[in-house]
């Protein structure tokens, strides 16, 4: 390992041709401690990498960069192709965007791979058989961070799911399972409630799964799936799921194996990859030399596999397993097998002292298949006939007793043109025509307009409809156009409709 | 208990004045078996209720009612005021709306209360100390079921969160904790990512919590919170959270105590309440007389508490605890303390045989405080100054290499009026001005338009902007207006902005 430099150009001309530049972010909270420990192990093991520090996180936020990094950082990252990142702290409060999410999405790191396994009996766990890999979709879902407050009472966040996003992550999961000798892939979603978004994910899983008859396959609803993962992790092998669900279940999977401090993750994209611990910056234990560097070290091992440095990866992994077996433990994994309770630094020393040794009880490191080559994801078919058939117009409205009939009457008084009022819902529940008096009514009303004859309409019809509300004091706050795709409606009905 | 009748009017004139009409839905899958078992126990215990069967669920869906029930059902429900409901099966596939969600939302059942505790050592569990109550928001969040497909590649679901919804559920959680002698309330959300929606929930928790200094309070991020609940449930007491998170963690909490078949839930609204098991219709074990009726029985006990029939509730609960202690177990809770493995029917017989007995090891039933009287939730303040400052217009666009600069140029060519292009994002990531080439680009573009001078605009300006795209072949698919509220922006920035 050559020495760190702040000059990104230096990274392109390492002294030794096989030394690979790796961007390194030391992070916040426990970040600097566990990164220092990890880099010391990598150096001692002879990793052929050249760390190029980048500055991201809390201090950069505090300087006024609401994205958590400075614009010149992109060039450094691109020069490296790989980032080893310690956790960072996103300041609470408005204005700051999560740097992690921005990095993943900007660099197209669509697959978040999180292996979680137990190291029983050496690390205390109630689930000694757990050995599961979570493949989490990393770019979509509610993490688009598109939020709007448009009425006094209601705020909204958009959940976005794409066909290609689903295809890429599902494909990755099956290819990963095959390459790593895994037997089963479980998909988790809430497709019984979110029939279009999670339904799309489920459909893609079924369709792509048909091409992998050698692998066992199942789909579970996320609630029972998370519960079963928490109680019977040994039933699972590879799990593929959407972003938010994956965020939750990978903490569950890591924690039941003994500590969130044990698991690393790879964030994989077509041209870039980022490696980090799955946990956060744990400010409550920062600066105390007690954090477990194991998660970041696992991430570094995955990185070395990704870079093709398999011997170094295996050497570190085996030394780490041996350290756990020898009972050299940080406080988070202390238990009856702990022989020596150590801090972050001393744990790294113990791993370094064991480089070259292999575990005697735990299975030794498996050679990573390295980077996966995915079959190309076909572009989404564009020869679908798309027809505009109406629009949902949303209003802020809070007049009188908020009687839906009164709103319907007002809308009908004003709306002219091809589109006529078909339904009103409040928080998704149909309140007109024919609602129930018990339904709580916020100031946020979705009013569905369709052509009287059910036929196609034009964008001009929508603009005409909106302009008919001008001068009426009606505050329309958003629209959602209604389309059919090859005659299939691309919109849900109201609840109770 | 008088005999069931289909005539809702009969329910209003029971033979005995203290007999209360209760709507009863037998449900699908294992529903009829566990409902029959539960009603037999209620009858034997002398519950002063008058079951009025309603017909909901799969068979009604199949008749073509996409909501899962017939319109006349509302009258029956209203006549009863309380519903005891077995799980139902929502048919897979488009068009069908979840009956459970519709019932909860239409009847304003905002609080979903799910106590989960361990019955160790009689029921096998790795977490003998678990005794936690989940208070789940029941009407909002992604369960609004408002989904749209507006481009060939992208589908969307709206997550809606309201100030009053948060206030009601948080208030309920604190009042519940006090009334039930609980010590701590933990809120779970993802406010570090969803700063407006989950951020609102978090703010309300902090504000209302200040009025309950007698209760310990904490907030955790949902991922680590779920993980810690799965591994250390004894750290939690009362948990309050949003709808989707609550759905997931209550299955976790129930499952770690031994079986999802053990937990019941109350769905509480201002004028109506519904009681059900937390699990679903488990079609895989339906009709086999193996399902555990315990969850529905727990729901019925909560219902009796709600109706003020405390002695009957306690009598049933104690007999049930005694049955568990005696080792009379359905297969899902079988373990080393099982003396007699029984089916659904025989389990009910065993509980009936023990009516009047109390447990000898497990703590006997606590008297329920019954219905909570909440302080009135103040209406959301409406004297906030709301100012329209722009709009996000979303386009389907897939031309050439999908170069954001090309889209920006096209938009600028057409857009006339007060609003000018400020930013373009794709799945939330800023791609113009100054995006990064690695960012994956779907056919779904959010284009932010603001007044050049940052000043207020009018609805007419928005309509003018939209009309400037007519005749351009630009397919605008939705809008999200941008408002400030007392000068605070009601919208998030782009990722990387
Ligand atoms: N990728 C990232 O950069 C990332 C990911 C998640 C969160 N975060 C950020 O991190 C901050 C804190 O978030 P959080 O408290 O929810 O989650 P967290 O940082 O993962 O910490 C949760 C708890 O896990 C334990 N823990 C985590 N890492 C550990 C380690 N290496 N060794 C030993 N124990 C460890 C600590 O528990 P005990 O106190 O019980 O010891 C800690 O309080 C927030 O600002 C959040 O936005 C960043
Ligand atoms: N409130 C409701 O009406 C409600 C709620 C949730 C789901 N659902 C619907 O129920 C259907 C099935 O959903 P799902 O399979 O995801 O969840 P589920 O019905 O809760 O069943 C999941 C598993 O839990 C076990 N289980 C559930 N209840 C049990 C009981 N009383 N006794 C013993 N074991 C029990 C069974 O496991 P084993 O196979 O391992 O024995 C079952 O396969 C779907 O149509 C769903 O929409 C309805």
Keywords:
Isopropylmalate Dehydrogenase, 10-stranded mixed β-sheet, homodimer, 6-stranded antiparallel β-sheet, alpha/beta, manganese (chains A, B), disordered N terminus, 497 residues, 13 helices, binds NADP nicotinamide-adenine-dinucleotide phosphate, Alpha-Beta Plaits, 3 domains
Structural class of chain A: alpha/beta
The assembly state of the depicted protein chains is homodimer
Averaged pLDDT of chain A: 92
How far the N terminus sits from the C terminus of chain A, by CA atoms, comes to 65 Å
Describe the structure.
Two copies of one chain form a homodimer. Chain A is an alpha/beta fold. The first copy, chain A, folds into three domains: 1-125 and 258-380, Isopropylmalate Dehydrogenase (3-Layer(aba) Sandwich), CATH 3.40.718; 129-256, Isopropylmalate Dehydrogenase, CATH 3.40.718.10; 386-489, Alpha-Beta Plaits, CATH 3.30.70. Helices cover 30% and strands 23% of the residues of chain A. The first copy, chain A, has 13 helices and 20 strands. In chain A, β6 (147-149) and β7 form a beta hairpin. In chain A, α5 packs across α6 (197-209), α7 runs parallel beside α8 (243-256) and α9 (294-306) runs antiparallel to α10 (310-325). One NADP nicotinamide-adenine-dinucleotide phosphate sits between chains B (30, 34, 87-90, 100, 259-261, 276, 279-285, 291-292, 295, 332) and A (192, 221, 224).
